[in-house]
Amino acid sequence: MSENRVIMDEAAIRRALTRIAHEILEKNKGIEGCMLVGIVSRGVHLAQRLAERLEDIEGVTVPWGELDVTPYRDDRESAEGTAAAGDQLKGLEVQGKKVILVDDVLFTGRTIRAAMDAIMDCGRPESIQLAVLADRGHRELPIRPDYVGKNVPTSREEEIEVLLQERDETDVVRLTQKRGN
Ligand SMILES: O=P(O)(O)OC[C@H]1O[C@H](OP(=O)(O)OP(=O)(O)O)[C@H](O)[C@@H]1O
Ligand SMILES: O=c1cc[nH]c(=O)[nH]1
Fold first, then answer.
1. Which residues does a 6 A CB cutoff place in the pocket of ligand 1?
2. Where does this protein have coiled-coil stretches (predicted)?
3. 68-83, pLDDT tens digit by residue?
4. Residue 118 domain-assigned?
5. What's the confidence (pLDDT) of residue 102?
6. Which residue, among 141, 92, 154, has the nearest Cα to 114 in the 3D structure?
7. What is the number of the ligand closest to the CA of 158?
8. Alpha-carbon span 113 to 90, nearest angstrom
9. Is it the case that residue 87 has pLDDT exceeding 70?
10. Is residue 131 part of a domain?
11. Residue 119 pLDDT more than 80?
12. Smallest Cα–Cα separation from 125: which of 60, 81, 80, 67?
């Protein structure tokens, strides 16, 4: 019944990112000392979009970078070929900064746990915050997002699929049945 249900269309994604940008500004009383870090893969595009929105609103450039957390995962098979976190951030300084992690989907929380480890490897941020486009529940770790595009109640047999213009030539968040179910 829930096969391929559209959860967010292009307009909903756009509005959610605009709202999250305002929430970031409100929580941090501006953007001073903040940086965005998008998790590979689609979190990177969301971080870039958020940085652009923040810049439109505040008129200042917001530093942002990207992070592939593969070497820090607890379920990794091989991290071969993935650069150390510090190299991936290309000189972006996390020491003393408010680091805002950005990802498309929050599920078990294991990706974000790995991302926090990667950030801590690069320095001691003032804080780490988390922005996600969709939170589908089923956490296995004590991790909660600070900014959420949409909370989506799901069963374990379902999957959230996020498609973004930059990679997929369309903007949509869909709820699908896991293959094999
Ligand atoms: O909370 P978790 O259980 O860790 O799940 C969430 C992660 O899963 C997906 O990434 P995936 O590993 O599928 O890679 P992708 O972003 O390249 O699709 C998604 O983009 C999140 O990063
Ligand atoms: O449903 C899910 C779970 C993890 N990651 C996704 O992108 N979707």
1. 39, 41-42, 103-111
2. none
3. 999 999 987 776 778 8
4. yes
5. 98
6. 141
7. 2
8. 21
9. yes
10. yes
11. yes
12. 67
Please indicate whether residue 49, judged by its CB atom, sits closer than 6 Å to ligand 2. no
Judged on CB neighbours under 10 Å (0-12, 13-18, 19+), 164 is buried
Q: How far from chain centre, in Å, is Cα 34?
A: 15
In this structure, what token pair is assigned to residue 96? 């003393």
What is the domain count for the chain? 1
Ligand found nearest the CA of 114: 1
Q: Please give the model's pTM, rounded to 2 decimal places.
A: 0.96
- From ligand 1's centre to the CA of 60, what distance in Å? 30
Q: Where are the extended beta strands (E) located within 3-157? A: 5-8, 34-39, 64-67, 98-106, 127-135, 147-151
Full domain range(s) for residue 140: 11-22+32-73+83-156
Using the mean position of ligand 2's atoms as its centre, give its distance from the Cα of residue 161 in Å. Answer: 7
**Average pLDDT over every residue of 15-38:** 98
Task: Judge whether 173 lies within some domain.
Answer: no
In a domain, 161, yes or no: no
Indicate whether residue 23 lines ligand 2 (CB < 6 A).
no
ipTM: 0.97
Q: Residue 53's domain is classified under what CATH number?
A: 3.40.50.2020
For residue 109, which atom of ligand 1 is closest to its CA? Answer: 1
Average confidence (pLDDT) over 51-62: 97
Helix axes 10-27, 42-58, angle to 10 degrees: 60
Q: How far away, in angstroms, is 130 Cα from ligand 1 center?
A: 14
